[in-house]
Automatic annotation (TrEMBL):
Protein name: [histone H3]-lysine(27) N-methyltransferase
Coiled coil: none
Pfam families recorded: PHD (PF00628), SET (PF00856)
Keyword list, A-Z: Chromatin regulator, Metal-binding, Methyltransferase, Nucleus, S-adenosyl-L-methionine, Transferase, Zinc, Zinc-finger
Catalyses which reaction(s): L-lysyl(27)-[histone H3] + S-adenosyl-L-methionine = N(6)-methyl-L-lysyl(27)-[histone H3] + S-adenosyl-L-homocysteine + H(+)
Cellular compartments annotated: Nucleus
EC number(s) per entry: 2.1.1.369
């Protein structure tokens, strides 16, 4: 007779963590063996959650740019490598503290800036040019059609009204192609789409919310002649006839805009374009190019233009440091909100003659004084 402590042939032995477990019958509720659970490796876990919160004393972290540990209030810490950078030591400089995760230039994995290929077909497709022409349009501007009316007015009355003038595109078609290519390069680098119209996307503010009558205190109305000038400029852009502007990259200011030809005083430069949204939805937004569109009597109905996904050359025009006299001297544009056929629109207009090669600047704050410009160069 076999000893009682020996295992019968009907029993099976399963090894688990260096121990021996007997199993003589299956569990009633589970007729089959449960599948083995596959655990993720430590590498896989760290790839999905690489930025775990670890309590650490950062008081001794110095700036990688200047080496100083002072001015902790303007020190940014990379959320990946924990290195510190003063906002003014970064290139380009950072104006305000980001609200979301921030990564230093080494950890941001930004690819080297690539120039947009200067091919006629690609430029036309990128900007959706409808009826391109190599020769600037010779059609009369609204100012030309109104000359006979001006003769009936006194000179003093005409100067008071200060009409807007349309821009004059560069005559050289190759140079005009390079201008558009510089804008396409900047938009592509920021993963943006080109748009020359205000866009109303689902989940944001509808077009019905953009009513100039909602403006607190009223909004100045763009006269009929200036509306014709605006539409004339928009028609030229659709044909590929752009204002004489070029987008360049500056190590301090980032992308910025320079005049590529003479621009006269009161010339309509461009309209500020982007997605329209409620200010309440963008209170914690990290985009530094948002523009006020409507300040409603009901604050929850106020609107902003957000050129973070769609925009035009306006989002690359920089602001002045309005805390210094030197900064104010650089201003050559004004940003004005107008009532255009009942809707709010934002236009950028030259306030003096602008020479070729001069960079374009306007006052970000206007009369609201909410945007921090004391770090602007």
């Amino acid at each position: 007779m076999a000893p009682s402590n020996l295992t019968s042939t009907s029993e099976k032995i399963f090894p688990f963590k260096s121990s021996v477990i007997k199993r003589t019958e299956a569990t009633r509720c589970l007729p089959f063996f449960p599948p083995l659970k596959k655990f993720k490796s430590l590498k896989e876990i760290m790839e999905t959650a690489p930025y775990a919160v670890i309590h650490r004393d950062y008081s001794d972290v110095g700036c990688e740019g200047c080496g100083s540990v002072d001015r902790a209030e303007v020190m940014l810490l990379c959320d990946k490598c924990d290195k510190g950078f003063h906002m003014l030591c970064l290139r380009p400089i950072v104006v305000r503290v980001p609200t979301g995760p921030w990564f230093c230039p080494s950890c941001s994995n930004h690819n080297r800036l690539r120039r947009f290929p200067l091919k006629q077909t690609k430029i036309i497709d990128f900007f959706r040019i409808q009826n391109h022409s190599h020769i600037p349009s010779k059609c009369a501007s609204p100012q030309d059609t109104m000359k006979h009316r001006r003769r009936c007015r006194t000179l003093v009355r005409y100067k008071k009204r200060r009409r807007l003038f349309p821009f004059h595109p560069t005559e050289d078609p190759k140079r005009r192609l390079q201008q558009m290519g510089s804008l396409a390069t900047a938009l592509t680098a920021l993963h943006m789409e080109f748009s020359n119209d205000l866009t109303y996307m689902p989940g944001m503010a509808p077009r019905s919310a953009n009513q100039a009558s909602f403006e607190m205190g009223g909004m100045q109305v763009l006269c009929k002649e200036d509306i014709e000038t605006l539409e004339h400029c928009r028609a030229m852009c659709r044909r590929g006839e752009w204002p004489p502007l070029v987008v360049v990259f500056d190590s301090l200011e980032g992308f910025t805009v320079e005049a590529d030809g003479q621009i006269k005083d009161m010339t309509l430069i461009t309209e500020y374009i982007g997605d329209v949204d409620y200010i309440k939805n963008r209170e914690h937004d990290d985009c530094d190019s948002m523009m006020t569109l409507l300040l409603s009597q009901t604050p929850s109905n106020s609107l902003v233009i957000c050129p973070d996904i769609r925009g035009n050359i306006a989002c690359f025009i920089n602001g002045i440091n309005n805390h210094t006299p030197e900064g104010s001297k650089k201003q050559n544009l004004k940003c004005v909100r107008y009532n255009v056929n009942g809707e709010c629109r934002v236009l950028l207009v030259a306030i003096r003659d602008i020479a070729k090669g001069e960079r374009l600047y306007y006052n970000y704050n206007g009369y609201e004084h909410e945007y921090p410009t004391h770090h602007f160069v």
